[in-house]
């Protein structure tokens, strides 16, 4: 009798990557109005712009489907989001104009750390040379965004108070901005204050939990998104390092490294959330008209044997249920398109991508969350959105999907974009 793990028959089917539909999806997002559900994300418009522009770049069609004039217009819009004192705002809605901006009111129009990182990446993707970026001012502002515990905030408030979140997302964007703007030729930055790298590394290491994963802050639950941000930040720091001590989370054989690899690999799951029981309230007669459980009925059902008999039957894995295997972000959660990115990107930076079952991850993305109109949804049967659409493409790119550009896992951008970054003056080592 065939084993439940004998999948050979199910793997011969052709799974199609609908490249042209994805191109049309990203073009619609770039050149027409977004659905009204995006309205609440207006202040994060630079992030939405990044997913759109980088998505077309990853599909190899950014320069083929947009004109030089259009791309220049996008560049000008990004520079309109640059704050005079350094960094970028998330959208133009808070801009007073240079003639009205004063030291007293500039806290109402601040640069923020995530938008600065993504603004720089958009400019690089569009081929800009960053010559108009206030590089020195941005790096000085960035150093003021670091808290005493080594983490980064989001914006500077009144009296230069660091405000906003303090989790690993901001650490990653801060380290990434430093990576882009400092480069390897630091002669022109002598005397400028840098961030405290040792404190940042110590904060990140303190976020690793007992199970090997990494949480948003010390003593928090492990989460794949924050794990990616931690490994991304450390990768940026390591790429610019000069004779620093080894970072254990990036060192094969070290306990923190190996326990994190095990946790990341364990995130691949065949639990997709697509076969939940339908129907209304099944609580039966043990609840009264107000939905409050009847205590007397509950007390009468405290028999352990009776409780055990009522436990649901857990069905064994079958060939069909094991055909698809995406990734979740935390223990006991369903698969989600974006976690195919967060987990595989982390493993990629740790040089452990070979531990992923790429065949079943590909089937999950292309058969379960790839949408008929293009793009990817969050989960099975859900409509596409920009975040999940871009991260779905990137995860497939890691697996060398035909029709997609290669991607740097830390910058989450095409190698073409990274090569352009490394061609800039401050990345050229002096002879």
Automatic annotation (TrEMBL):
Query: Per its Swiss-Prot or TrEMBL entry, what cofactor is needed?
Result: Zn(2+)
Task: Report the InterPro entries cross-referenced here.
Answer: PGGT1B-like, Prenyltrans, Terpenoid_cyclase/PrenylTrfase
Q: Which Gene3D superfamilies match?
A: 1.50.10.20
Which UniProt keyword terms apply here? Metal-binding, Prenyltransferase, Repeat, Transferase, Zinc
Region: Disordered, residue numbers: 271-291
The biased composition feature labelled Basic and acidic residues covers: 281-290
GO cellular component labels: CAAX-protein geranylgeranyltransferase complex
Q: Where do the Prenyltransferase alpha-alpha toroid domain residues begin and end?
A: 17-412
**A GO molecular-function term, please?**
CAAX-protein geranylgeranyltransferase activity
Q: Which family does it belong to?
A: Belongs to the protein prenyltransferase subunit beta family.
The name of this protein is Terpenoid cyclases/protein prenyltransferase alpha-alpha toroid
């Amino acid at each position: 009798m065939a084993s439940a793990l004998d999948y050979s028959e199910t793997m011969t089917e052709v799974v199609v990557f609908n490249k042209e539909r994805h191109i049309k999806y990203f073009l619609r997002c770039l050149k027409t109005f977004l659905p009204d559900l995006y309205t609440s994300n207006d202040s994060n418009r630079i992030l939405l712009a990044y997913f759109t522009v980088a998505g077309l770049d990853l599909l190899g069609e950014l320069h083929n489907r947009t004109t030089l004039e259009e791309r220049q217009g996008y560049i000008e819009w990004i520079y309109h989001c640059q704050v005079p004192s350094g960094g970028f705002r998330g959208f133009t809605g808070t801009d007073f104009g240079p003639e009205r901006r004063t030291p007293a009111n500039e806290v109402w129009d601040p640069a923020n750390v995530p938008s600065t990182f993504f603004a720089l990446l958009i400019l690089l993707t569009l081929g800009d040379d960053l010559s108009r970026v206030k590089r020195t001012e941005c790096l000085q502002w960035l150093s003021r965004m670091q808290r005493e515990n080594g983490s980064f905030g989001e914006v500077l408030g009144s009296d230069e108070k660091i405000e906003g979140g303090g989790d690993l997302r901001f650490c990653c964007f801060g380290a990434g901005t430093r990576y882009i703007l400092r480069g390897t030729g630091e002669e022109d930055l002598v005397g400028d204050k840098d961030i405290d790298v040792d404190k940042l590394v110590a904060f990140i290491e303190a976020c690793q939990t007992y199970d090997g994963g990494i949480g948003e802050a010390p003593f928090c639950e492990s989460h794949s998104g924050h794990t990616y941000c931690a490994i991304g930040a450390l990768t940026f720091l390591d790429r610019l390092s000069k004779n620093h001590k080894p970072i254990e989370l990036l060192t094969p054989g070290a306990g923190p490294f190996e326990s994190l690899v095990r946790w990341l690999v364990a995130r691949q799951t065949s639990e997709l959330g697509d076969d939940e029981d339908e129907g209304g309230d099944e609580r039966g007669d043990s609840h009264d008209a107000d939905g409050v459980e009847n205590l007397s009925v509950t007390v009468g059902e405290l028999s352990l044997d009776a409780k055990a008999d009522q436990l649901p039957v857990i069905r064994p894995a079958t060939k069909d249920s094991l055909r698809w295997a995406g990734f979740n972000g935390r223990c006991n959660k369903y698969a989600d398109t974006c976690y195919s990115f967060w987990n595989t990107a982390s493993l990629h930076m740790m040089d452990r991508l070979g531990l992923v079952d790429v065949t079943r991850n590909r089937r999950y993305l292309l058969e379960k969350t790839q949408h008929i109109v293009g793009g990817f949804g969050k989960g099975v049967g859900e409509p596409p959105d920009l975040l999940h659409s871009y991260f779905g493409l990137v995860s497939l790119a890691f697996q060398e999907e035909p029709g997609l550009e290669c991607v740097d896992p830390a910058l989450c951008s095409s190698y073409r974009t990274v090569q352009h970054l490394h061609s800039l003056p401050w990345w050229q080592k002096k002879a």
